[in-house]
């Protein structure tokens, strides 16, 4: 009997050692909703407000140019009616035809210029959005990393991430802590909001 007790005790001690080792080796994992953090980040809101202003300015400029084109097209239509008038003198008709041809070429040139203008502005806005978004995501990742390091997490997984087929990448994690709410409370520390850049108006202005 004593011969059996010693091996059993050794096995119990060994098993306890494995359990402690497993406990120490267990990874500390957290999840975070990067989409929620990005939406609530002050820098995102500031960038969105600026983008909306830029788009409105481009739209207003485009509408002003289009108004000029419409006036030019209306002028061409008026000249056509004059040319078609049988009572007009032949030399006057030829003069109007030449003038109308020149205005028609101007209209085509302005139309092409407007189309190119809108494409360039649209491309510029999209490129700026990509640059700003890259900066924003970099800043948020830094904040997530600092929080993870201070809390001793081994991995932080984005629970809002999706694959190229739009399937959620993270379907299940065991014993993972969601740190989204904690970060939402501190993510804007030291980051001015979208209205901070606007100078305060003094009384009487």
UniProtKB/TrEMBL annotation:
Keyword rRNA-binding attributed: no
UniProt name for this protein: OmpH family outer membrane protein
Highest taxon, organism lineage: Bacteria
Stretches assigned to coiled coil: 20-127
Keyword list, A-Z: Coiled coil, Signal
The UniProt record lists the keyword Ribosomal protein: no
Family from the record: Belongs to the Skp family.
PANTHER family referenced in this protein's UniProt entry, alphabetically: CHAPERONE PROTEIN SKP (PTHR35089)
